[in-house]
């Protein structure tokens, strides 16, 4: 009998040790399932130098009042030697009523050609809470920041005559009869 009691005692001790070892891991897994996930995308992953690209970071999933992501600042590392940061001024955190910001966006243009790894860091103070990145490739070239226009007046600014366009259209019309 004494031997059976000792075996049960040893088995219970082993179970407690295993449970104690697994419990923090299990708790961490549960916390990660509830944790929002940060994703970063660019409006274009291929552009000419000087073109303004929109970048959007989105927090998906997780609780709306996830404390770790409440009132985070957004730091953008453009991989071209520049950084941008936006810092929020928020009310104190209240569980169940405070909501996290889920969308972070910024525009940026690159002056030189190359491949850039843009990184969005969400920070609380100096600590990085989460980070996401995306790559963009910039080609050297002139990028027009003005949308193309089909207006005939636009042609006047380039030196072409509006009348020469009308004459050519009339000639084509009569010549095809």
TrEMBL record:
Gene3D superfamilies: Immunoglobulins. This is PKD domain-containing protein.
